[in-house]
Amino acid sequence: MARWNGFWTRRTDVQRVELYTKVSLYVLVWWVGFSVVVFRPEALASVRTALLLSVVVVVTALAATVGLRVAMAQVRPRLDDPAVRRATAANVVAALVALGLGLALPQDDRGLVVTVVAGTVAWGVGAVRGRAAVAIGPVLLVGGTLVLFGAAGSPAAVAWLGVYAFFVFTLRSSLWLLAVVRELDQTRQAQGRLAIAEERLRFSRDVHDVLGRHLSTIAVQAELASRLAERGDERAAATMLEVRAAAHEALREARALARGYRPVDLTTELEGARSLLRSAGIAWHEDLDDLPPRWREPVGWVVREAITNVLRHSTATRVAVRWERDTEGAGGVGGVGGAGGAGSLVVRNDGARPADPAHAGTGLLGLGERLAPAGATLTTARSDDDFVLRVDFPADTAAGRGEEPA
């Protein structure tokens, strides 16, 4: 049971829908054939009849399975695709073989063959687009009915065409739903890539702002220093000291930028989180009304990392972030009140995937190291399929300034 649960929970929602659709359709292909025979047990009284019907069911169901597999691999299968043509030809041949075997059956049992052909051909070629493909099923059914029953079978042919149309409608509806789910997933992935591209663009702008300004200053001052040195001006040494100071300042800001220690605006992070999760179809709830102002920037760091992990490492459908004030002022969970801004930030999401040490990231580790100078501690926990990220903030005012490391 645990192995099956892991097999299911490790899959994304799209993979689950695909698996459910494929298994359901494959089962229906074989169920249609065998149920028709089983529901008429008197036809199985003769060994010869039972053997012929079994061959009819197996041959047509195998061909339908091949056609169904090809149809599910494509969004809109058409006859101009070689794989679709081969699968369609296999279904036509299987139907002709089945109808030919029907001639060897008693008159009362031939209707079973036509019913099996109607069901399996619908699954095998019903999803193929184009006029020629649409005409295959009706032509086989009407022609097979006339061959097996003559003109007297015309009324029954109408009923079998109805059965065929019902199965085609069921198949196309299922494949349409699967295509919609795939397109939505592709849209979600595209939005994720767009968000990453926007973040890279933001980072590039920051790099330009930080380094561009300092490098321009260094270039101008270095040129000035060289001119002064050529004239033997004593101010050249002072100018070079200014160049060195500008270089050190550029290096410091570049390191801060790379480590993400630039000031973070919590309002901007929350707006970004809402937008990203909404585009991914994930419900969002926040309760940060009691958050002390001194903790807004560290909480912004946590929100950014938490949302990144949700999108990368879970199949979440909901995310909740809340601030819990500590009545004892020690960073634990408490009721209303609290002293000196002590409390805990709790981020909870469902859809947590099993931990994989081989692919463990360093984001949370780096976040914990970044929070340490502020006196905050980060812990994580799992409950069923929920993942809980918790950061306890102290009440000490000095530690609570959230100053960035040098």
TrEMBL record:
Domain Signal transduction histidine kinase subgroup 3 dimerisation and phosphoacceptor, chain residue ranges per copy: 199-266
Cite the GO molecular-function annotations of the record.
phosphorelay sensor kinase activity; protein dimerization activity
- What Gene3D superfamilies does this protein map onto? 1.20.5.1930, Histidine kinase-like ATPase, C-terminal domain
Transmembrane region(s): 20-39, 51-71, 83-105, 111-128, 133-152, 158-181
What keywords were assigned to this record? Kinase, Membrane, Transferase, Transmembrane, Transmembrane helix, Two-component regulatory system
Q: Does the keyword Transmembrane apply?
A: yes
Q: What is its EC number?
A: 2.7.13.3
**One CC-aspect GO term:** membrane
Main EC class the enzyme belongs to: transferase
What InterPro entries does this protein map onto? HATPase_C_sf, Sensor_HK_TwoCompSys, Sig_transdc_His_kin_sub3_dim/P
- The protein in question is named Two-component system sensor histidine kinase DesK
Species per Swiss-Prot/TrEMBL record? Nocardioides zeae
Q: What is the lineage of its organism?
A: Bacteria, Bacillati, Actinomycetota, Actinomycetes, Propionibacteriales
